[in-house]
Write a structure and sequence with these properties.
heterodimer; A: alpha/beta; Flavocytochrome C3, Chain A, domain 1; Methane Monooxygenase Hydroxylase, Chain G, domain 1; eight-stranded mixed beta sheet; four-stranded antiparallel beta sheet; 20 strands; B: about 230 residues; alpha+beta; Ubiquitin-like (UB roll); five-stranded mixed beta sheet; 8 helices; 7 strands; about 30% helix
Chain lengths: ~575, ~230
């Protein structure tokens, strides 16, 4: 086997919103940018984002980025870093204008401005009346944005390695990142991509759960690569269950359906959210609504023959509104449930949706980890942005419409910071041969012969364990058991064998690598969750029902080596405004 | 239910073959669920898929003669045996995985980005709901390739005829009130092949899983060209 080696200025792994927005900054600056994606770029999961992107444009009602910032801090249950949150909410406004200039087909208001709709957890005047802040292209906003960003990259001539799978990061002797070992999926051949800076923009890991809104490709590859390179994962116990997945299937019914005036009912026809969130009702924060639905079902007020879901009503909005504002979920409901939501309610139940945690990074996209001088030392040459990163702007719970915003703002800023970094680092780093050998050994390990466990079997086992032991409500017993089970699955990884060892487009081989990544991510979730003894945001423990700011207003850091945990403080100081001190979180 | 699946692995097979699988079909099952079950029986079976809900455009295949997105195609509607093949007219990499390079190149060839000559405003460019509505049915394309790979003109001239997908994209930008590249776009589409190889067979309209109308878009471009030439 000949090992091909290529040199680039920048290596970007992942071609969703974050990766593409970084790439376009760099390619426009005439740098040699390699974008590695395991799927054709427009297949990235950003395409599935529905409801919209938040920015205090004030097109419908008066709005301010400061209010957006307050909502995001509160939504995060005060675990978000306030400097990063301030930055994101301010940048939201020029970011959305830039997207519009690039060609995103936003829906429009009568006066020609970008259409905005209300979303959960949004307010005006620091917690008063509902705000209208989410900019939307019908309910296919992610599609509109991803396609536009791909087009901008075609224009800027970024170099795409499409259908290449990243195996592992490469490092120099000091742990600085020098590129990655990747595999051409169509030929099965390995390749070394050397770069002066590497950006991980690989998205989420929802496939760690059985019922998820996430695509098949969302297997936490970048997070696991970072873990194996010695970088910890931050706040992985905070996994968002979106309240309204299609019951039993998991595909998403956007929060925009409630933003447009839809609401939830139980089997008695009761609008039960009034009991859980008297003011915000169906537009309370996602963790609040998800817990309410699970509670309704557990207490016997679920709908359907098995009483295992609730109903989402949008039929009272009228067919015209559903057709204009929610065409995507109408199509999804027709295809997967066989109903038309313009006339019938949709059966829904929470579905694993978004990981608030990820690779610790600062607001410039630089990966930071505890080292000699403090808890946030920069890992040389390594950046992370998007869902795989934890800046942290979502803290313990993410607001709807802030995910697209996160990937766009921090993707762009990573690109700009890399430009500066490259000026200070004009030469390629020297990859440590041990690091390259380790990556190659991992690449070759599924060539092993003999009988063993099948990938699909072990993946299904992991997804079931995670669903049963790291779901919406978590007690110590449940999680302790979960941890032991995931650990047992990790031990079994050594016995995984491929029956098909051919080179050409071997999807079984890709799935084997993905399974290893999922197991590493699963371990980080259960380990971090078991140790956090409080209820905050999406992490809800009946055995510790209260938020405990004195002991737990801090970020968890999980290290793969020895499954070790460490902690670091939350950054409560914003850039230019007063800090929002923790308060009881009511909607 | 019986499924006959196209198999070809260049590492081990001298030529392609069809292989039969019996899959227990449950109510509400999509074609992708069947492909996944086949994969569970035989790990060496290769196909692309991802989102599972018809938005990423990965899992286009040819089933009983028509191009479909597997994840949003209910199995119940088919007659047995269900014959699943890769997209017609494309080089096969392995099993149902085809080489889509020509298709992507044609997309790129229409300059699929907004062209502006005026400086951009400080805030958003304005667009009335009516102007914006002209883009509906154009921007929702997921680039699955069902249309272009069911088009005989694209089969014969995949390097010269742009095909329904790229032409739909060309019209998406021509129809955008913010775009100022009309003249150069129309010039680039001129000639006997790029646009005019469309013979209005309308296979593309039938094949589109998102219910878009590339033939209609092509008609609009022709009309615009005609209007400009007189």
């Amino acid at each position: 086997m000949t090992l091909i080696r290529k040199n680039f200025d920048v290596l970007i792994i992942g071609a969703g919103g974050a990766g593409l927005n970084a790439a376009v900054q760099l390619a426009e600056a005439d740098l040699r940018v390699a974008v590695v994606s395991k799927v054709f770029p427009t297949r990235s999961h950003t395409v599935a984002a529905q409801g919209g992107v938040n920015a205090a444009l004030g097109n419908v009602d008066e709005d301010k980025w400061h209010w957006h910032m307050f909502d995001t801090v509160k939504g995060s249950d005060y675990l978000g870093d306030q400097d990063a949150i301030e930055f994101m909410c301010r940048e939201a406004i020029p970011t959305v204008y830039e997207l519009e200039h690039q060609g995103v087909p936003f829906s429009r208001l009568d006066n020609g401005r970008i259409y905005q709709r209300p979303f959960g957890g949004q307010s005006r005047n620091f917690g008063a009346e509902q705000a209208t802040r989410t900019c939307a292209a019908a309910d296919r906003t992610g599609h509109a944005i991803l396609h536009t960003l791909y087009q901008q990259n075609l224009k800027a001539r970024s170099h795409f390695f499409t259908e290449y799978f990243a195996i592992d990061l490469l490092q120099d002797e000091e742990g600085g990142v020098t590129g990655a070992l990747v595999m051409d999926i169509s030929s099965g051949e390995p390749m070394i991509l050397n770069a002066r800076a590497t950006l991980l923009a690989t998205g989420g890991c929802g496939q760690v759960f059985r019922t998820t809104s996430n695509a098949h490709i969302n297997t936490g590859d970048g997070m696991a690569m970072a873990l194996r390179a010695g970088v910890p994962l931050q706040d992985m116990e905070f996994f968002q269950f979106h309240p309204t997945g299609v019951a039993g299937r998991g595909m998403l019914i956007t929060e925009a359906s409630r933003g447009e005036g839809g609401y939830l009912i139980n089997k008695d026809g009761e609008r039960f959210m009034e009991r859980y969130a008297p003011t915000a009702k169906d537009l309370a924060s996602r963790d609040v609504v998800a817990r309410a639905i699970v509670t309704e079902v557990r207490e016997g007020r679920g709908c359907g023959p098995r009483g295992d879901h609730v109903l989402l009503k949008v039929d009272h909005l009228g067919e015209a509104t559903v057709a204009k504002r929610l065409p995507g979920i109408r199509e999804t409901s027709r295809i997967f449930v066989g109903i038309d939501p313009a006339f019938e309610p949709i059966p829904v139940y929470p579905t694993a949706h978004y990981v608030m945690g990820g690779i610790p990074s600062d607001r410039f996209g630089r990966v930071v980890a505890p080292a000699r001088h403090g808890p946030e030392e920069v890992v040389s040459g390594l950046y992370a942005a998007g869902e795989c990163a934890c800046v942290s702007v979502h803290g313990a719970n993410r607001l709807g419409g802030n995910s697209l915003l996160d990937i766009l703002v921090f993707g762009r800023l990573s690109g700009l910071d890399i430009l500066e970094y490259l000026e200070e680092h004009p030469r390629h780093g020297q990859t440590d041969s041990a690091s390259e050998e380790k990556a190659m050994a991992r690449f070759q390990r599924f060539d092993r012969e003999g009988e063993g466990i099948a990938v699909a079997e072990l993946r299904a086992e992991l997804q079931k364990v995670m669903e049963d032991h790291a779901g919406v409500f978590r007690t110590r017993e449940i999680m302790q058991e979960g941890l032991e089970k995931v650990r047992a699955i990790r031990d079994k990884l050594d016995d995984v064998r491929l029956h098909d060892r051919s080179r050409t487009f071997n999807t079984a081989r890709v799935e084997a690598f993905e399974l290893e990544n999922l197991v590493d991510v699963g371990m980080s979730i259960v380990t971090s969750a078991l140790h956090r003894q409080e209820s905050r945001g999406a992490h809800s423990r009946p055995d510790y029902p209260e938020r405990d700011d004195r002991n737990w207003m801090r970020h968890s850091l999980y290290f793969r080596e020895d499954d070790r945990l460490d902690y670091k403080p939350v950054r409560t100081r914003p850039l230019s405004v007063e800090s929002f001190p923790p308060k009881a979180r009511v909607y | 239910m019986r499924f006959e699946v196209y198999r070809y692995n260049p590492d081990t097979d001298a030529k392609p073959r069809m292989q039969a699988f019996d899959v227990e079909v449950e109510r509400g099952m999509m074609l992708r669920d069947v492909l996944l079950q086949i994969k569970a029986m035989d790990e060496s079976f290769a196909f692309r898929h991802s989102c599972g809900e018809g938005v990423c455009g990965s899992d286009g295949v040819n089933v009983n003669g028509s191009n479909r997105l597997a994840c949003i195609t209910p199995v119940a509607e088919f007659q047995e045996p269900v014959v699943i093949r890769p997209f017609p007219g494309r080089p096969v990499i392995r099993d149902l995985v085809v080489d889509m390079s020509d298709f992507y190149q044609q997309y790129q060839a229409v300059d699929p980005w907004l062209k502006r000559k005026d400086p951009v405003p400080e805030q958003e460019s304005l667009q009335t709901p009516e102007q914006r509505a002209r883009l509906d049915g154009l921007w929702e394309c997921v680039m699955c390739g069902c249309c272009s790979t069911s088009c005989p003109s694209f089969w014969w001239n995949p390097d010269k005829f742009l095909g329904p997908q790229a032409l739909l994209t060309a019209w998406r930008f021509l129809a955008d009130s913010r775009d100022q590249g009309e003249e150069e776009r129309l010039d680039a589409l001129d000639g006997p092949y790029k646009l005019f190889r469309c013979h209005t067979i309308m296979n593309c309209v039938e094949a589109c899983p998102k219910h878009l109308n590339p033939t209609g878009a092509i008609g609009h471009i022709r009309n615009l060209m005609l209007k400009k030439s007189v």
